Amino acid sequence: MVDLLLVNPPVFDTYGPNMGLGYVAESARNAGYSVQLYDANITMHARALDSNKGHLWSPNRQSEWIEKAAFLETKEVLSGEIDVCISEICARAPKNIGLFMSRTTYKCGVEIARGVRARLGPAVRLLLGGYDCHYLRVAERKLAHLGLADHIVIGEGERAIAELLNGEHAGNLFIQSRSAEDLDDIAWPTYAEVDWGATPRRVLVMGSRGCPWSRCMICPDKFGGKYRARSGENIFAEIMYNYRNNGIRVVSFADPVFNGRKQSVLELCELIRASGVKDLEMDAQSSFIFDISAGYAASLKEAGFGYLFFGFESGSQRIVEDMNKGFRVENAARIMRTLHEAGIKVGINVLTGFPTETEADFEATQRFLVENSQYIHKVHENNHFRIYTDVSDCGLNSVAEDPLRYGVDPATVSEENWISQGGRLTLEVRKRRTREVNDLCDRLGILKSYKVS
Questions:
Q1: What is the number of domains present in the chain?
Q2: Could you write out the three-class secondary structure of 324-362?
Q3: What is the pLDDT of residues 57-77, one digit of tens each?
Q4: 240-271: burial string, b at 16+ Cβ within 10 Å, e else
Q5: Whether residue 138 is found in the same domain as residue 221
Q6: Single residue among 143, 176, 209 that ends a domain in this structure
């Protein structure tokens, strides 16, 4: 009987192994426990392909995994595949099941947890962790009432999993984990449990945790806590292990802000250059707050970074400041040009319909896209602003906490259907602006990786 079975619920993309579960697996194994992985995402995708349902695994279909009404149809379509996954998980008869819960895996994860609990009862401990468990009030609201979990780990899971397997925290539903001060002390994933014959050979690497800015009012990366960065040497060791042992050539950095600590990034680039490795393909999310010079960009390109994407959101400096994004629009344009000249493709997110956005502000965004279109490879996300009331008391959406400050009619506060005072900024207007950005990208030849709603 295996001590710990880690389960990765289905999500809308087959991107490779789950990095978070990889960290948890290393911690459990280093503590002396046996570990197995059940990747329900890869398993269900393979079965769905056989039954002509594989189209659901696409970034353009993520709403069908996340939104309540849409997921009911997804669940119905995939009911047979979900039942098979539950049966295969139960057949392994693990002592403990660790289930990864995030915004994208949450609904299907709940179905798996409910099915396992119904069949195995209290014979197995259900341990929940992940992004939806990263803040206590979110976990309490979304998970505790389900009665499906024996323990819910709040925060980083490496220390907590060893403590739980050692028998600590008996009777405690919520486990507030302790974050590591030095990330170099944490064992990075070796993916010993991964079936590489079925899993895409691409890994996520996290070079830092937390955000060095951590003031943007629209970003969930406030969850990461105190900003900490690994050394370039430590990151290099992980990449080279996967390169030599798992055949990995494609690496995506999962840092909220990859360029937050320049010293570590340049150290990594120099180590890769000195190693003679020339066939890495790497990408990362970065921030316009932190400058990227021509020399810096050249080092990134030589190391194998071919794509950086940024949370740009708006071409209006006033809206950037209202969102507390922390950068100057003119600096964003300069950094994009610098990266383009170094041969690195640039992706950006666009967010229209912020409550204080006027038509003139929106036109500034359109103008920015036109003037800098030659430097923009792709618009990564193109969304209109939503008020997420389910996390309003966690500091993630200041508009929900104080709608009048942003000119929103308090009586209309909701995710989609909020209205600014006076009725100026309605859902119809916000969707129209999103469509106009989409059409502009088409005319400018800027690629897109989203579906317009």
A1: 2
A2: CCCCCHHHHHHHHHHHHHHCCEEEEEEEECCCCCCHHHH
A3: 987 788 899 888 899 999 999
A4: bebbeebebbbbbbbbbbbbbbeebbbbbbeb
A5: no
A6: 176
Q: List the single range of 348-352, 355-359, 392-396 with lowest mean pLDDT.
A: 392-396
The DSSP secondary structure of 52-113, one letter per residue, reads T-GGGSSGGGTHHHHSHHHHHHHHHHTHHHHHHHHHHHHHT--SEEEEE--TTTHHHHHHHH
Share of the chain above pLDDT 90, in %: 77
**Residues sharing a CB contact under 8 Å with residue 355, sequence separation 6 or more, in sequence order:** 385, 399, 403, 406, 407, 408, 418, 420, 425
DSSP assignment letter at 307 = E
Q: Same domain, yes or no, for 312 and 366?
A: yes
For residues 136 and 278, membership in a common domain is answered with no
State the Cα–Cα distance between residues 57 and 36, nearest whole angstrom: 24
In a domain? residue 318: yes
39: tokens are 């990747």
Which tokens in the block code for residue 279? 């066939």
pLDDT of 223 = 52
pLDDT digits (tens, 9 = 90+) for 159-188: 999 999 999 999 999 998 888 999 999 999
- Shared domain for 168 and 263, answered yes or no, is no
pTM: 0.93
* Residues facing residue 253 across a β-bridge: 205, 284
Q: What is the chain's length?
A: 453
In whole angstroms, give the CA distance from residue 22 to residue 32. 16
**112 and 221, same domain (yes or no):** no
Q: Are strands 345-352 and 281-286 parallel, antiparallel or unpaired?
A: unpaired
221 has a pLDDT exceeding 70: no
Average pLDDT over residues 360-370: 98
| 305-313 and 345-352 beta bridge pairing | parallel
Residue 430 φ then ψ, to 5°: -65, -45
Lowest mean pLDDT among 126-140, 173-187, 193-207, 271-285: 126-140
> What is the CATH number for 234?
3.80.30.20
> At 121, which CATH number?
3.40.50.280
